[in-house]
Design a protein that fits this description.
Elements (H helix, E strand, L loop, with lengths): L1 H23 L13 E4 L5 E7 L5 E6 L13 E6 L4 E6 L5 E6 L5 E5 L7 E5 L6 E5 L1 E2 L2 E2 L3 E6 L5 E5 L13 E5 L5 E5 L5 E6 L5 E7 L23 E8 L5 E10 L3 E7 L5 E6 L8 E6 L5 E4 L7 E7 L7 E7 L3 E6 L9
Length: 350
């Protein structure tokens, strides 16, 4: 009789412990059951990029205006601000200096990668509330940056950005490369052997740096190099390279964890579980091919999120606060902003 009583008393405790353990487990899959991509804005015109959420939950999105496409009355790029609470988009910065990649750092500042083709060819820091703006970087060792493309930061507030030419034939003095900017403003070139780096992300634990490597030979070739890609990136596609990142922000042990022969990687995003989301496309609006690949920290593909048909999906970014489980996506040619509900939460160092 005593044995039965002990069993009955222990059963609720066991069930409670089991349920608690299950609650602490990472969710399976990525997208909420039944969720689909929803188009939420067509405010921009040409080339969407740089979607990122500020601490107040509002999103910032770039619109790039290549001079080859907009020959007259070109505004020099726009940054839009979208409020998920109201569904309204407003112009936040125009001209934007052909802003491309955007990032919000631990201080809450908007970091802006300004491209070439009449753009600023610089990295800016801007206070979203006051508009106070300062140059973070516009040159390396006295030579002007090529075209800052995408940007991220780590828990210490160090900034990492890619600098590679994708449009225009403005003079180039530096190879396509990846840079780190320390808190004291010191700029260090940390990678210079990728053909054309693009998206960039730091893992939540700060131990890995991910860089998208685009292999296209149809885009402007940088005469300063690199002459070839360290990982022999496919000329018709591209891949993602993972590096070990040490406490000082230095990289080592680079390895290609994703490779595609037909489409190249563009922007990327991270969730709080360390999964990497990669927007991939072929850059051809007349015959578009696209994919969204999700990689776990081991570099394994855990999901393909199919983009709406006929689009070039360029960048990904999660919301914040109550919106942290929403994944946003930009498109190009024409500009568009989309979202989908996930069972994950976006990662930001804050």
């Amino acid at each position: 009789m005593k044995f039965r009583i002990v069993k009955i008393l222990l059963l609720p405790a066991f069930v409670g412990a089991f349920l608690a353990a299950c609650a602490g487990m990472a969710p399976r899959g990525v997208v909420e059951q039944g969720a689909k991509w929803e188009e939420i804005s067509r405010a921009g015109r040409v080339f969407g990029e740089g979607v990122v959420a500020a601490k107040d939950g509002r999103l910032y999105i770039s619109d790039i205006f290549p001079t080859a496409a907009i020959k007259e009355n070109n505004p020099g790029g726009t940054i839009w601000r979208y409020d998920p609470a109201t569904g309204q988009a407003e112009k936040y910065m125009e001209p934007s200096g052909m802003a491309n990649g955007l990032h919000v750092d631990k201080d809450g500042d908007l970091i802006i990668a300004q491209g070439a083709d009449t753009g600023g060819r610089a990295l800016l820091r801007r206070n979203p509330a006051t508009g106070a703006t300062a140059v973070v970087a516009n040159a390396y060792q006295g030579k002007k940056l090529n075209s800052p493309n995408d940007v991220t930061s780590d828990a210490q507030g160090r900034i990492y950005f890619t600098d590679a030419r994708y449009i225009s034939m403005d003079a180039m003095e530096l190879p396509n490369a990846v840079y780190r900017v320390d808190r004291d403003g010191k700029i260090t070139q940390i990678i210079a052997d990728l053909w054309r780096p693009n998206g960039i992300e730091v893992s939540p634990d700060g131990k890995r740096l991910y860089v998208a490597d685009n292999g296209s030979k149809q885009l402007p070739i940088n005469p300063v190099g690199p002459a070839k890609d360290r990982f022999d990136v496919p000329a018709g596609g591209g891949g993602v390279v993972a590096y070990d990142l040490d406490a000082g922000g230095n990289v080592s042990n680079g390895r290609m964890i994703l490779r595609n022969e037909e489409i190249g990687p563009d922007g990327m995003a991270m969730d709080s579980d360390g999964n990497l989301y990669v927007a991939m496309h072929n850059g051809n609006p007349k015959a578009p091919k696209a994919d969204i690949v999700v990689l776990n920290p081991a570099g394994e593909i855990i999901e393909h999120l199919t983009a709406p048909a006929g689009m070039l999906n360029t960048q990904l970014g999660f919301g914040r606060g109550a919106d942290a489980g929403t994944l946003y996506m930009t498109r190009a040619l024409p500009w568009g902003l989309y979202r989908i509900k996930t069972v994950r939460r976006g990662h930001y160092f804050n």
